[in-house]
């Protein structure tokens, strides 16, 4: 019986994928403006270059001058870059005013909230409130601030809002502010979608699995974790064991083979959300997201805990408290 149900689910996924690629799309994209945050590298950079080639009028934000210069060198004259720190309210406000002047009466067809950081990923009892702040400020409050400032322009165009979340917004995979921020993005997207429906604005949420980008660099992740480890109290170090970091690195190596390297999988989701007459509410990007993370998010908590805890390093002295 289980195999029949599994086969039916697989068939449904195949049919849905087949039909979604053949759904009718919007016309005349050359007169439509889209605003993308976090275009220095990764998903945002590829999205900016891809949508520029398609003919959209792209406004791409970068955090650094170097990122802006490099992107302009690879794109057409249609694309405009703007330096933006999404955690700076004044910077966001001024950028929105510039965009309003730039797009005029056409408004803004698409807003792709892509800017994000991972922050520190570590056990909860290693962390301070400060460790939680950066990813929440960037990934959640920054996203909300940009959206609220751009919303009048999106309503004018009856356009699209696309928020890049994560499978970490469906499952709390690791301690730290990252998953908290992505859970917030999911909730904000749901509220915004319902509030904007009457205005003809579509809101979509993209949930990438594990992808090879600068944000997910395992070396940088381990370095941040080790920096916190050095400052932990002797009691906590004793509980976790002196070899904890080394064992964690070994576990991390096992996940490398499951990391997606094709960033275009995420950009294809953005493209569908921007151009389809019937955009989806949520998009899972990456095989791991579709086959493991998203299905697991629907499972009972006891099963989630069992599978996720199997991936964690066993503590040396958990009773030494």
Instruction: Give a count of the beta strands, DSSP E runs of length 2 or more.
Output: 7
Order of H and E elements: HEHEHEHEHEHEHHHHEHH
The shape is globular
As a whole number of angstroms, the C-alpha radius of gyration is 21 Å
**Total of helices:** 12
Strand content: 5-15%
- Summing up helix and strand content along with how strands pair, one would put the structural category as alpha/beta
Oligomer: single chain
Strand order of the largest sheet: 3-2-1-4-5-6-7
Mean pLDDT level? 92
Q: How is the biggest beta sheet arranged?
A: 7 strands, parallel
- Compute the separation of the termini in Å: 47 Å
Low-confidence stretches: none
Helical fraction: 40-55%
What does this molecule look like?
The chain has about 325 residues and is of the alpha/beta class. Helices cover about 55% and strands about 10% of the residues. The protein has helices at about 1-20, 40-55, 65-75, 90-105, 130-155, 175-195, 220-230, 235-240, 245-255, 265-275, 285-295, 300-310, and strands spanning about 35, 55-60, 80-85, 110-115, 160-165, 200-210, 280-285. It starts with a helix and ends in a 12-residue tail after the last helix. The model has no long low-confidence stretch (mean pLDDT about 90). Keywords: Signal. This is Dehydrogenase/reductase SDR family member 9. Belongs to the short-chain dehydrogenases/reductases (SDR) family. InterPro entries: NAD(P)-bd_dom_sf, SDR_fam.
């Amino acid at each position: 019986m289980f195999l029949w149900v599994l086969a039916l689910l697989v068939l449904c996924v195949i049919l849905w994928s087949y039909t979604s690629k053949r759904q009718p799309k919007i016309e005349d994209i050359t007169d439509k403006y889209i605003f993308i945050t976090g275009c220095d590298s990764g998903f945002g950079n590829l999205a900016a270059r891809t949508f520029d080639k398609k003919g959209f009028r792209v406004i791409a934000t970068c955090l650094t001058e170097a990122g802006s210069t490099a992107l302009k060198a690879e794109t057409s004259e249609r694309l405009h870059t703007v330096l933006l720190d999404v955690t700076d309210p004044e910077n966001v406000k001024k950028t929105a005013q510039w965009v309003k002047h730039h797009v005029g009466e056409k408004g803004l067809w698409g807003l792709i909230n892509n800017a994000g950081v991972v922050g520190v990923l570590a056990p909860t009892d290693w962390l301070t409130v400060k460790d939680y702040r950066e990813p929440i400020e960037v990934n959640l409050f920054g996203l909300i601030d940009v959206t609220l400032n751009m919303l009048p322009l999106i309503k004018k165009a009856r356009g699209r809002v696309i928020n890049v979340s994560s499978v970490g917004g469906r499952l709390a995979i690791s301690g730290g502010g990252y998953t908290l921020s992505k859970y917030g993005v999911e909730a904000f997207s749901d509220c915004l979608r319902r509030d904007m429906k009457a205005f003809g604005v579509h809101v979509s949420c993209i949930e990438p699995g594990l992808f090879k980008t600068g944000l997910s660099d395992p070396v940088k992740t381990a370095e941040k974790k080790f920096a916190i480890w050095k400052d932990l109290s002797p009691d906590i170090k004793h509980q976790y064991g002196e070899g904890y970091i080394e064992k964690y690195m070994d576990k991390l190596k096992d996940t490398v083979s499951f990391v997606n390297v094709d960033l275009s999988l995420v950009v294809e989701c953005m493209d569908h959300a921007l151009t389809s007459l019937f955009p989806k509410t949520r998009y899972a990007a990456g095989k791991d997201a579709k086959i493991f993370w998203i299905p697991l998010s629907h499972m009972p908590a006891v099963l989630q805990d069992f599978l996720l805890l199997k991936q964690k390093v066993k503590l040396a002295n958990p009773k030494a408290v």
